[in-house]
Amino acid sequence: MGHRTLVAYDRDGYDLHEAHWGADPERITPETPFGGPPDDDWAQAAATDLIDPGRIEGGELTERRRTAVDSDPIATGLSFADVCDRIDPVEHEALYVVSSDFSVRTYLVFALRRPDDEGCRTSAALVGYDGESDATYLRGWLAGARAARDTDGTVVGALRWLDPERGTVVYLDDERGV
Predict the structure, then answer these.
(1) Greater model confidence, 124 or 55
(2) Which pLDDT belongs to residue 151?
(3) What is the tens place of the pLDDT at every residue in 147-165?
């Protein structure tokens, strides 16, 4: 599995794209709207070692991507709630929201568990971050919070309190309310 990032471009609603191996948000600019060349040489080398590329014609492993973000949208004209609907916390590591002036708001996707009347159901949080050192801090924070064995919604509550300036958004998988 790659480090999948969803990239939502604000264009009269959001156009949703995917970056299979992630993308550098600083490289998403008006000149390089899809982030420039991908940093996936290591994946290409590993794939070549594992399979015979000649046997897979026209596949992801034999075609070189020209941009980190796939230029073909997954969906267009979405609301932000619709974008959140498409996030799978098991599949996606991050969400980038690109405004019309190409400023990029970055979010980490955290899979959580939230108690309900019948046990626990999966929920997820989008937590705004600023740079890789902040992302590393947040991943460590979540690991520590999970170690507290969340049985009463403490982690979800703490995420809401963590830092309102981060732009934390919490939603539940079954309701997908943002």
Answers:
(1) 124
(2) 60
(3) 776 566 667 667 767 776 7
Return left, alpha or beta for 118; rule: phi > 0 is left, psi -120 to 50 is alpha, else beta: alpha
| CA distances in angstroms from 18 to 14, 35, 52, 173, listed in the order given | 13, 11, 26, 20
- Report yes or no: 128 and 106 within 8 Å, Cβ to Cβ: yes
Asked if 167 contacts 108 with a C-beta cutoff of 8 angstroms, the reply is: no
Tokens of 159: 């995420």
**């995917």: which residue's tokens?**
18
Taking only the tens place, the pLDDT of each residue in 100-118 is 999 999 999 988 765 554 5
Q: Reading across the β-sheet that carries 4-10, which strands appear in turn?
A: 75-78, 14-19, 4-10, 92-98, 104-116, 119-128, 169-172
